[in-house]
Amino acid sequence: MSEPVLRILYRDEALVAVDKPPALLVHRTGLDAGETRFAMQMLRDQLGQPVWPAHRLDKGTSGVLLFALSATHARTLGQAFEAPDAVRKTYLAMVRGWPPEAGLVDHPLRRMADDARAGRLEEQSAQTRYRTLARHELPLPYGSFATTRCACVELQPLTGRRHQLRRHLKHIAHPIVGDATHGKGPLNRAVAGLLGGQRLWLHALRLELPHPLGGEPLCLEAPPGEEWGDWATWQVGQPLRPAA
C-alpha cells in the first residue's frame, strides 16, 4: 500500500504549505505517544528533503500548515509569527448555539500545565475576533428542545495562545463541535452520528504573512472539505447533507 500524500498548496525555495487533514499530528509528541503518522515526517518523505514546522495546528484541526525548507527560513518565519500584526490567521468553526453577528473575545488564558515555567506569567492576554456566517438548527434533541442550534463562524485570533480558539469559544458558551476537551460530549456524539463521522469542526482557512525572502505579502488558502459546504451556507429550514 502506498504512503498517503499531503496536498501541497504552495511551494518555493523557502517554504511549503500543505492542507493538513484532521486527526493528523504536526510532529511527534509525548502527549500522544501511540500515534505513528505525523505531517512533518510525511512531508519530508514526500519532498525528499528536511522540513521545519513554522507554526502549529492541533491534531484535530484541518487546513493550512506551513513549513520552512531551511533552518534560516524557519527562524525568519518564527519571528514573523511572534511579531504583533505580522501574520493574520483565519479559521472556520462550527459551534454550539447562535452567537451574535460579530464580536471580540478578550479573555486572558492560563498557561497549560505542561507549559508552566518558573518566572513565566501564569496568565496571558488573549483576543479573538469572530463573525457568524450561517445559523443551523440540527434535528437533534437538546434538553427540552426538539432541535439543537449550531452556527458556522469565522475566527481570527489576534494572539497565539495554545488552544486559544477552543478555549475562547468555550468561554463565551459556544464550544466548538467535536472538541473532546473543551466541548460537550453528548453533542459531539450526536453530531458524529448524524453526519457519519467524528472530527473537530475547526479548519485553518487562510494564512497571510510576509514572505521570508523579501517580505512580499503571501496569502495561503485551503478551501474547506466537501463536508463544510453545507455548514458554511446552510440556513435554518434547509436540509443538511451528511458528510461522506
Model description:
- By secondary structure, this protein is an alpha+beta fold.
- It has helices spanning 39-47, 71-82, 164-171, 185-195, 228-233; strands at 7-11, 15-20, 52-53, 62-68, 88-96, 102-106, 109-110, 123-124, 127-138, 148-157, 202-210, 217-221.
- Strands 1, 2, 3, 4, 5, 6, 9, 10, 11 and 12 form a 10-stranded mixed beta sheet that branches. Strands 7-8 form a two-stranded antiparallel ribbon.
- A hairpin with a 6-residue loop joins strand 11 (202-210) and strand 12.
Helix-strand topology string:
EEHEEHEEEEEEHHEEH
Just name the CATH architecture.
Answer: 2-Layer Sandwich
Q: Provide the residue-averaged pLDDT.
A: 87
**Rg, Å, rounded:** 19 Å
Q: How would you sum up the global shape?
A: globular
Name the CATH superfamily assignment: Pseudouridine synthase
